[in-house]
Design a protein that fits this description.
Length: about 120
């Protein structure tokens, strides 16, 4: 029984030593529809953080991603808002327009952001 506890303790120590710092950039994958059908083409996006699902003030600056390829409604972007994540709820508001088009259309509802950690181990 004592040996088993030592092995588990050693494994935890090895894992903790190998953990690297988590940056502020994260990936976001979404689905965009146009008139009920999956969108295709190139679009410009604006992403903004809020502390509530409705209303409230924007937290920090918006992040703009222009010329994003959307295929069968699916798109992926990297976002970096700095470090406004203090454990409080955060909601992502997404605005979109055809690439180089006029005004942005705000999509609804805002998307709740949930935190997950990726641990990287060094050998």
């Amino acid at each position: 029984m004592i040996l088993r506890g030592c092995l588990i303790g050693l494994m935890v120590a090895v894992c903790v030593v190998g953990v690297t710092a988590q940056g502020t950039e994260f990936g976001y994958q979404g689905q965009l529809q146009n008139s009920g059908a999956p969108a295709n083409g190139t679009f410009d996006f604006e992403f903004a953080l809020f502390g509530s699902a409705l209303g409230g003030s924007q937290i920090g600056s918006a992040v703009t991603r222009g010329g994003v390829n959307v295929a069968n409604g699916i798109f992926s972007v990297s976002l970096d808002f700095g470090n406004p994540f203090d454990g409080s709820a955060r909601f992502l508001e997404i605005r979109v327009r055809t690439a180089g088009g006029g005004t942005y259309t705000t999509l609804s509802p805002r998307q709740v952001l949930a935190s997950s950690r990726c641990l990287h181990y060094r050998r």
